[in-house]
């Protein structure tokens, strides 16, 4: 079974790291990326994803390169803490707790989100519904709270909403948006 791999966009959505920082680290070859498929799209391993998550969890005073963090995690993926010098100790279990939870949620997306050309032209929807992942993300970004969305869609639960929003963030719509995005300026 092949190891899971994640695109830079998926890595940014799961870890909260800036997409530009991830792409810069790949371009500078600080973090190894594999080229997959005929298109040669760059994919990162789970260890690389966790390295970016750990970099995001570090306080601003502690500056490490992506390559350093990646090598530390690659040497021992189950490492409980990282000691830097005599004064800095990083509890990796605690620092990566939220990322591991989001990673598990994202891995469940294959069971929850479906793409069927017969349903809304192949847009990613929540299984058994016509609710798109993008619409859930849009409502959350517009300020709706989870309870109001659950009130509108009682068949859904919190985890499903979280998976849909994470999936939509990791897989944004391609191309130019349709329709007018702002009122006509006068």
Automatic annotation (TrEMBL):
Q: Which domain of life is it from?
A: Bacteria
Q: Which residues form the signal peptide?
A: none
Where would you find the membrane-spanning parts of this chain?
none
Q: Which residues form a coiled coil?
A: none
By its UniProt entry, which InterPro entries does this protein fall under?
DUF433, Homeodomain-like_sf, WH-like_DNA-bd_sf
Classification via Gene3D superfamilies: Winged helix-like DNA-binding domain superfamily/Winged helix DNA-binding domain
Q: Which Pfam families match?
A: DUF433 (PF04255)
Query: What name does the UniProt record give this protein?
Result: Uncharacterized protein (DUF433 family)
């Amino acid at each position: 079974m092949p190891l899971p791999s994640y695109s830079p966009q998926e890595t940014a959505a799961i870890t909260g790291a800036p997409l530009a920082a991830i792409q810069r680290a790949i371009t500078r070859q600080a973090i190894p990326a594999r080229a997959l498929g005929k298109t040669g799209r760059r994919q990162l391993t789970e260890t690389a994803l966790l390295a970016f998550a750990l970099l995001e969890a570090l306080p601003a005073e502690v500056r490490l390169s992506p390559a350093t963090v990646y090598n530390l995690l690659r040497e021992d993926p189950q490492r409980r803490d990282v000691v830097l010098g005599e004064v800095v100790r990083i509890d990796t279990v605690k620092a990566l707790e939220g990322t591991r939870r989001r990673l598990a949620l994202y891995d469940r997306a294959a069971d929850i989100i479906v793409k069927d050309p017969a349903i809304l032209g192949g847009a990613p929807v929540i299984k058994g519904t016509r609710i798109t992942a993008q619409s859930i993300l849009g409502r959350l970004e517009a300020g709706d709270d989870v309870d109001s969305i659950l009130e509108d869609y009682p068949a859904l639960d919190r985890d499903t909403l979280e998976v849909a929003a994470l999936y939509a963030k990791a897989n944004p719509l391609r191309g130019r948006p349709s329709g007018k995005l702002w009122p006509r300026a006068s």
